[in-house]
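Help needed: design a sequence for this.
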């Protein structure tokens, strides 16, 4: 088997195992959402590159397993959508929900 040599490789391996397990149990549409983080507080700026790499991994897994991928980092780029740099405010949840609904309506899965 694969012997992950980094946290990102371990992340990818575990995510793929999870998708394979889910795919064996259902053929329902699956939507993967990219991870996101805000640039404030300033200490989170150092996490941005890692979060971007995780997003690229998830997008690749979505393509590999023919799943849907929801990109939200461009919509959730304003600090008004968070109080602590990670968790969404009510306004942030509305933006995320709108993005989700737009994708699902375009896919005609709801």
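Sure. Designed sequence:
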């Amino acid at each position: 088997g694969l012997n992950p040599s980094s946290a990102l490789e371990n992340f990818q391996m575990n995510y793929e195992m999870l998708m394979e397990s889910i795919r064996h149990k259902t053929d329902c549409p699956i939507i993967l959402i990219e991870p996101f983080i805000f640039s404030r507080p300033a200490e989170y700026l150092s996490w941005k590159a890692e979060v971007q790499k995780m997003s690229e991994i998830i997008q690749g897994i979505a393509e590999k397993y023919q799943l849907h991928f929801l990109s939200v980092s461009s919509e959730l780029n304003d600090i008004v959508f968070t109080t602590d740099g990670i968790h969404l405010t009510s306004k942030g949840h509305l933006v995320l929900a709108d993005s989700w609904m737009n994708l699902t309506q375009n896919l005609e899965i709801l």
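The chain has a mean pLDDT of 89.
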